[in-house]
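Quarterly update from the structural biology core.
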Amino acid sequence: MSNIKKQAFSGILWNGIQMVVNQGSSFVIKLVLARLLYPEEFGLVGMATVFIGLVQVFNDLGIGAALIQRKDEDLREAHFHTAFWTGVGWAVLMYLVVSFIVAPFAASFYEEPILESLIPVLGLGILSSPVNLVHKAQLTKNMDFKKIALISNSSNITSGILSLILAFAGAGVWSLAFNSVASIVIAMPLFFIATKWKPKIIFERQAFKEVFGFGIYTTGTNITNYLIGSVDYLLIGKLLSAQALGTYTFAFILTDTFRSRLMSVMNTVLYPLYSKMQDNPANLKKYYLKVVEYNSVMIFPVMVFFITMADPVLLVMFGEKWTDSIEPLRVLSVAVMVHMMVNSNTALIRGMGRPGLEMKLQIFKAAIFLPMLYFAIVHFGVVGAAYAVLINKIIAVVIAQFTFYKLLAVKVTTVDFFNAVKIPWVAALITGSSVMLLKNSIELHYILLSIILFSLYGLIVWLFMGKELLDQIYNAKAAKSIK
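Predicted structure, tokenized:
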């Protein structure tokens, strides 16, 4: 097995461990917080997050992506120091904007005075995240995902425990706010220890131009992505209510947040990998299709679980106050399954050095999605927003297929694409239909039905992919042994 393949397997292994630990701990924390808090409090944090998140997108400037994408022979020490000081200086400016402009505007926009004090607290992550930027880029470029996983797990679990303590102490919405920003702050000293890299007072104009020149397109793409991903929060909070936004936010946390974390596992590994292979379209195609298949295999059973078990899960585990989240949860679960079919395309396009194309595609999708979403929320409320997200994901799949076949050197045909996802889709359809039939015809406890669901899905996948999965497990162990 080649060294780059070993690095890929090792990276996916450690990022997988990171996701399982993070997602598991996050789910438990959200479970407890959902029992202690109310939809309105989740809604308030959702309102604040819309504005904070947009500033955070501007805050990144695409610098981390530029450092990772740049070839080793073209990367100098000055690039790292220049990137660090650019990020820190820009972060200070952004935090001042958040505290004195964004917070008062958001409070007025939503007519929720508490946002004026809540947003500056949530915005503390803006100040700390650029400090971690260069360290994380260095570890990612070296594909040292073991250290990243250990740092992420440690910081997320610690911040989660502290937020639960605050919730039990009666801190209410502030416990959610703390949970959103503390992990970034806690991770800061851990990154310094992991890389041993320390910033020097070096700022080179040429290095800034080279890094920022790539990063400006990435930032444009990230802004568009953020608008597509967060405008539903903005419109629901404005057009409906904090309670409605809370029910939608909770459904989104359980589905799309899980999807985004899984995507980050693969994309964190694959972006530097794609960058190293950007001159080899055949290998890029092979890796891309495998990523689509494996991501779908991993996430589909969770989404089928939410589709079939939404009512007992929400009502029994979280309480009747979350009844309005049931239908959005089901629709968003289907949307996630569709999205998994294009989950790695942006990392591939960026890794090939085409950030301009990536940005144009996202702007095109936003132009379609935004008016559709507005219409759906006005006429059909929170459920309409969920269906608009689903339709947007279907459109994204069509656009991705056109892009790969017509605009890139990686020629992924429709047949190639559907061959890559047929096994998880078949397994999901058979499993979902069987469980719904049992649920509607026999009185079985939802825990027993859930065990049947995951067991049946696993059996079907194993029948089709068992030998291949065993080979991949062997490769992953071999990759781990070289560390």
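Residues 3-481 form one domain.
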